[in-house]
Write a structure and sequence with these properties.
Length: 168
């Protein structure tokens, strides 16, 4: 069975991630979306919430599993028996970081291949950070994220907005 891991912070999962997930699914028997738990990173959503959102998005997809990991990605891949890591590439600016990750991972685990998929044109400038910024200022994020993720973003930012506006 050919298993691939699609790792990331997914804070939150966007339509860009969905694009990569759906396309890579065609190449493997099973895809594990692996959410990085990084206590040092200031995440908007807890890893449990990020997992819950991705599980909802992928509920109807066969052969997709959502998991979390900490430590080295190569160790997680070994544990789950994956032969490949999937990463999406958007603009040239992604290249240097991705080259670094792929090269280090290759050194740590020579049998593990990193496979890059070029983002579809409509997602090529989409990122979790941009989505959060638009949501924070009340912009329309609906075309950028799955519906359930949009709902969660609205909850987070509406709450903050309401609290700020309350009289002291
Ligand atoms: O969505 P992101 O934040 O770009 O994903 C980055 C991720 C999770 C793929 C990367 O940070 C990672 O693999 N972290 C785990 C630690 C690790 O294995 N680092 C690579 C060797 S330095």
């Amino acid at each position: 069975m050919r298993i691939a891991v699609y790792p990331g912070s997914f804070d939150p999962f966007t339509n860009g991630h969905l694009d990569i997930l759906e396309r890579s699914l065609k190449m493997f028997d099973k895809l594990i979306v692996a959410v990085l738990i990084n206590p040092n990173k200031n995440s908007l959503f807890a890893s449990s919430k990020r997992i819950e959102m991705i599980e909802k998005v992928s509920a109807k997809m066969e052969n997709v599993e959502v998991s979390q990991f900490d430590g080295l990605l190569v160790d997680f891949c070994k544990k789950v028996g994956a032969c490949s890591v999937i990463r999406g590439l958007r603009a040239v600016s992604d290249y240097e970081y991705e080259l670094q990750l792929a090269t280090i991972n290759k050194q740590l685990a020579p049998d593990l291949e990193t496979i890059f998929l070029m983002s579809s044109a409509h997602c090529s400038f989409l990122s979790s950070s941009i989505v959060k910024e638009i949501a924070r200022y009340g912009g329309n994020i609906e075309p950028l994220v799955p519906a359930n993720v949009g709902e969660e973003l609205k909850k987070v930012f509406n709450t903050k907005f309401t609290l700020k506006k309350k009289p002291a």
